[in-house]
Amino acid sequence: MNDATLSVGSLEAQPGTKARGTVRADLGTLTVDIPLVLVNGSRPGPRVVITAGVHGGEFTPIDAAARLTTLLEPGEVRGQVVICPVANPPAVYQGRLNVSPVDGVNLNRVFPGHPAGGPTERLAAWLFTHLVDAADVYIDLHCGGIDQVLRDFVGYRLTGDPDLDKATAELAGSFGIEDVILGLKADGGNSHAAAARRGISAVLVEVGRLGQRDEATALRRVDGLLKALRHLGVLDQDGSAPAPIRAWVWSAGVTAEATGLWYPEFSFDADVIGEVAEGDVLGRIVDPADGSEHTVHAPADGRIFYAMHGLTVAPGAELAALAVPWDPDTAARADTLRTPGVGAGSDEAGSRP
């Protein structure tokens, strides 16, 4: 029997029960109410923490997390599951952007946060201290934002700990998503990277595009989460075999070097975004005032995994991210790989701050 009480702040669930509510986080200049669902299984097992809504404008992950909370029954759960459907209320409810309207900071660039920093740094510290740091397994849900087309993938970071990296690789392969992208270092301010540095098996799951909300995608995400929970032993196995995966590593990020209107040369269809070679023309940035053009070239070979869908861009905006298949020599040439930048795009990049 599981005899451990599951508590986060003032919210708690006794063994064999589920608790729902909000916990208030003090961000210095304001407070926010963080919605949580605590599922404390009747049998012992791992503690799994699932977050969504780290960014605004990413609706399908929030929908999927909310749907999952209604499906998990404590009597069927081994261990404990903590679900936070909206980790960043200001961005989700007010800004609907990757950056917070409170201070213009991207939450998923500042983990593990700072308890005496600005509001978003304090929020990161609260989430890390109260949720992530106590986890055995951490799953962070994202999708392509309102201006971003994206191929579904799972991302995780290599830590150099063979047992941890093996466990995380197996977790990444359990969602039924074909493409898995490895970050070669566990550095930077992404939540799953910070968790990996603490010895937590942590993955980023990116499913969906353009911030779209549709039931089919949400249900597909829920199905992937249930598969992962079965893999972890939190739920009973159903006898299904894991799907084959393709492993990738980032090769380059492409950022805008001019202000203007972005006209890509590739298709926005996530199913046909294809391979590019170094030097290929990816698109043009046109100055709306004088019509001058800045041509954007691929800085390396790779497959486009996410790309800017929006029309207007400024210097530093992420236009695309490229990945190449993982091979045994990749780690030896890690310094030659140019990972995606620090703009407002996707969150799995080997050395993003």
Structure description:
By secondary structure, the protein is of the alpha+beta class. Helices cover 19% and strands 32% of the residues. The protein has six helices and 19 strands. It has helices at 59-71, 89-95, 119-130, 162-172, 191-197, 215-231; strands spanning 6-8, 11-13, 17-26, 31-40, 43-51, 78-84, 137-142, 148-150, 153-157, 179-183, 201-206, 246-255, 260-264, 275-276, 281-286, 293-297, 302-308, 312-313, 318-325. Strands 3, 4, 5, 6, 7, 8, 9, 10, 11, 12, 14, 17 and 19 form a 13-stranded mixed beta sheet that branches. The chain has a four-stranded antiparallel beta sheet with strand order 16-15-13-18, with no helix packed on it. The chain has a two-stranded antiparallel sheet with strand order 1-2. Strand 1 and strand 2 (11-13) form a beta hairpin. Helix 1 (59-71) crosses helix 6 (215-231). It starts with 5 loop residues before the first strand and ends in a 28-residue tail after the last strand.
